[in-house]
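Can anyone check this?
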Amino acid sequence: KRRTFPAVSMVVADGSGFPADGQWAQAPELQMVSGLGPTNALAEATSVKVLAGDDVWYVRFDGELKGEPVANVTKRDGDIWFDDAFEVSLSPPSGGYYHVIVNTKGAIYDSEGAAGTHFDAGVETRMTRPDGRWVVDLKVPAKRMHAAGLVPGETWGFVFCRDNPRTGDGGAVDGANAHDVTCARVITVP
């Protein structure tokens, strides 16, 4: 069942190529939940925000990080989902979906569809580790996935997940699996 993401703002990137912290502060936030246990509370609380730019989606993951992360993968398109990692699947209006994963070492996995067909999404990342947290900003070029780019009024689907081998329960927004875009949050381009 698809749900709407709260209204997404259109932003202009700062000199680093990412939105400024003030722009992120204004963005709506969704909390990830656990698929385990009756409370759905994650051992390491995690949230996600999305902003739209000039034919670019900006995604910010912000999660607690208690202890040292598991980070074994250093090469592109390795088995990153076994590490501490954040995942986003994007489903453009033209159909299908693209999957992007990043771990705490900055290694990226990106693919097209459930078959995991190699695809270079052109994703840029920025990571910080402020006081017991792990914050990852992604800059995802829309035109690599949808020739028209970001068209006002069109809708995209997003699934957000966290992999956490230390707790055995990473979580997801709405409890959705990264490959189940039928349960994606729908975001309308502003």
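Reply from J.R.: I decoded it. The helical segments are 21-26.
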